[in-house]
Design brief:
Oligomer: homodimer
Largest interface: A-B, 32 and 31 residues
Largest sheet of chain A: 6 strands, antiparallel
Distance between the termini of chain A: 18 Å
Structural class of chain A: alpha+beta
Helix content of chain A: 25-40%
Number of helices of chain A: 5
Chain lengths: 151, 151
């Protein structure tokens, strides 16, 4: 879908993905080598009482789920940034994540009539329906060719 | 270093790391499979005129550089979140990244005297000294044992 097909209030939900312990450890060993992400034994004495996924692993899992849902993927021209990310609850081995996404702001580009900027609010949910992470992104999206000609 | 050793205004700079084309493509193939991150030929016709690193690759490279600098790593008890992330300039194959980090806020925990929350402002620089990304993180840091007893 194009910029013009995603008005404020449009929402969708992604597929679900499980994070297995081995993946959690592999990701964190490369990108976030803190013991409560990489060592199940040592993690028992951490504030989390056991192994938890790196928050960056949760973020990237959410992002790939969103891309794979293919709502705005083909119109994407990149992203200027991200706001208000909060890691609300630990993600543990075997948790299954999915993402609820809602358009909260749309702004046609003033200088470039072929694109606009869309702000998406995300809630990442686990298999119990609990929010584990929330965040906002902005994405530059191509306009529908006929729409940009008309604006 | 502990929470108490990192007052507002404390700053440090990380080591530098180069992002090679093969790494950029490998990361994006798994986590951000958009053609301007994965296909050098097709990327020439993108708004960026060539292959650029996923912004998440830049973020994780910055984070691992920060962890490896070992300033607050051992006191870390995790992070509540991240704010105001902006991808300012493309990162291209061969670019060398380093991070300037500054403490902008410190807040001892009211309920848990053994820890505090520290806010860090980050500027990721390329080899030309240009800012390619800025963002803020909050990190929960353990207090120095004598400091928490005294507070």
């Amino acid at each position: 879908m194009y910029f013009d097909d995603l008005p404020v209030g449009y929402s969708f939900e992604t597929a679900e993905r499980e994070l297995a312990e081995a993946e959690i450890i592999a990701f964190a060993s490369q990108w976030d080598p803190q013991f409560f992400h990489t060592d199940p034994e040592a993690a028992k004495s951490s504030p989390y009482g056991g192994l938890i996924a790196s928050g960056y692993h949760t973020l990237l899992t959410a992002f790939t789920l969103e891309l794979a849902s293919n709502v705005w993927t083909e119109a994407s021209m990149g992203s200027p940034g991200m706001d208000a990310l909060r890691w609300l609850r630990p993600v543990r081995p075997g948790d299954r994540l999915r993402v609820r996404v809602e358009v909260t702001e749309t702004r046609p580009s003033r200088s470039k009539p072929d694109r606009g900027i869309t702000r998406f609010a995300h809630t990442v949910l686990n298999q119990h329906g609990e929010a584990v992470m929330t965040y906002e992104t902005m994405v530059i999206l191509a306009r529908r060719p006929d729409a940009s000609a008309a604006s």
